[in-house]
């Protein structure tokens, strides 16, 4: 393998994004990986200095100190890694950084190399917990394993693809369960023995940012601590009237309204014909996404 010539270490690299597809296929030109429910992280290592950034360039060092330390100990002078972090999002769980790509290594920009060669470089890095190599899936129909084991889905990547700074047609995501970033615009009171709140009232902005559309109620996926923490945060954002501008189906009884600032990740089966979430559940809070950037994702 011939590495590209050395160049100046970049302050920022725009991460590639996968394109949602409803097609199911395999072929020798594709590599399949598990799609994780986490936060996209780019890791920049310069000597012992390590900076973790979300996909929109927000620092995540404070959320993942163990990841920072593990990357600092890697036996390379400098590197840029791309991957998915799991285990925070306001929930308990073991922290891990699942590394699936390498963009820079010891003074060399490797983004122009084909994916199969970048994976070889990455495989030679001695990642130790909480760093994890993302393995390729070898099942003939990997999306069936994903759905059977309760994964979010799989990512199909062309073996010959370079690292692109856009939503790429060469990285395709196949989802078992739909997942969507949404913005909290209100909540309902708890009922019975529940504490904190009953359900989050969530929505998204239209692409021109002029409308805030009510998308449904999310009442599952919480533990007691998260219910109480969310209620405390939402109480500080309370406003007298609904922030939604398109309000079909919006409950008014025992509802409270808040400034649309908190972003959550929600899993659901599908969108209904009326544009509402079917069987939604909370996956976690998103600290790496601005509320105004949340629009409805289209396949």
SSE layout:
Blueprint: E1 17-20, E2 30-35, E3 39-46, E4 49-53, H1 65-72, E5 78-86, E6 96-105, E7 108-109, H2 115-123, E8 131-133, E9 136-137, H3 142-148, E10 153-158, E11 167-175, E12 178-188, E13 200-205, E14 212-218, H4 224-235, E15 238-239, E16 255-258, E17 263-268, E18 270-271, E19 277-278, E20 281-286
- Output the radius of gyration: 21 Å
State the shape.
globular
Continuous helix count: 4
CATH class call of the largest domain: Alpha Beta
What is the name of the CATH topology of the largest domain?
D-amino Acid Aminotransferase, Chain A, domain 1
Give the fraction of residues assigned to helices: 10-25%
Annotation, overall tally of beta strands: 20
Taking the sheet with the most strands, its summary is: 7 strands, antiparallel
Uncertain stretches of 5 or more adjacent residues: none
The ordered H/E elements are: EEEEHEEEHEEHEEEEEHEEEEEE
CATH architecture of the largest domain: 2-Layer Sandwich
How far is the first residue's CA from the last residue's CA? 36 Å
Keywords, please?
single chain, 299 residues, mainly beta, D-amino Acid Aminotransferase, Chain A, domain 1, OB fold (Dihydrolipoamide Acetyltransferase, E2P), seven-stranded antiparallel beta sheet, six-stranded mixed beta sheet, 12% helix
Describe the structure.
- The chain has helices spanning 65-72, 115-123, 142-148, 224-235, and strands spanning 17-20, 30-35, 39-46, 49-53, 78-86, 96-105, 108-109, 131-133, 136-137, 153-158, 167-175, 178-188, 200-205, 212-218, 238-239, 255-258, 263-268, 270-271, 277-278, 281-286.
- The protein has four helices and 20 strands.
- The longest helix is centred in the last third of the chain and has 12 residues, at 224-235.
- The strands form four sheets. Strands 12, 13, 14, 15, 16, 17 and 20 form a seven-stranded antiparallel β-sheet that branches.
- The chain has two domains: 17-175, D-amino Acid Aminotransferase, Chain A, domain 1 (2-Layer Sandwich); 178-293, Nucleic acid-binding proteins (OB fold (Dihydrolipoamide Acetyltransferase, E2P)), CATH 2.40.50.
- 12% of the residues lie in helices and 37% in strands.
- It has 299 residues and is mostly beta strands.
């Amino acid at each position: 393998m011939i590495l590209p010539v050395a160049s100046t270490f970049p302050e920022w690299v725009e991460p590639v994004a996968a394109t949602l597809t409803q097609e199911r296929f395999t072929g020798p030109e594709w590599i399949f990986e598990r799609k994780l429910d986490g936060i996209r992280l780019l890791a920049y290592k310069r000597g012992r200095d390590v900076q973790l950034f979300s996909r929109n360039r927000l620092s995540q060092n404070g959320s993942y100190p163990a990841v920072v330390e593990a990357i600092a100990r890697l036996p390379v002078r400098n590197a840029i890694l791309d991957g998915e972090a799991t285990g925070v999002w306001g929930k308990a769980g073991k922290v891990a950084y699942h590394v699936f790509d390498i963009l820079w290594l010891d003074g060399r920009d490797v983004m122009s190399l084909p994916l199969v060669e970048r994976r070889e470089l990455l495989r030679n890095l001695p990642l130790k917990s909480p760093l994890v190599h993302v393995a390729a899936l070898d099942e003939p129909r990997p999306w069936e394993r994903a759905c059977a084991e309760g994964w979010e889905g799989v990512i199909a990547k062309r073996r010959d693809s370079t690292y692109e700074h856009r939503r790429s047609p060469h990285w395709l995501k196949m989802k078992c369960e739909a997942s969507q970033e949404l913005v909290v615009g209100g909540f309902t009171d708890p009922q019975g023995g529940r504490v904190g709140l009953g359900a989050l009232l969530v929505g998204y902005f239209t692409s021109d940012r002029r409308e805030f559309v009510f998308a449904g109620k999310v009442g599952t996926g919480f533990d007691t601590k998260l219910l109480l923490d969310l209620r405390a945060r939402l109480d500080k954002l309370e406003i007298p009237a609904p922030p939604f501008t398109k309000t079909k189906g919006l409950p008014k009884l025992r509802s409270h309204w808040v400034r649309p600032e908190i972003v959550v990740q929600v899993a659901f089966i599908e969108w209904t014909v009326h544009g509402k979430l079917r069987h939604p559940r909370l996956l976690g809070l998103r600290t790496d996404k601005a509320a105004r950037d949340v629009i409805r994702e289209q396949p």
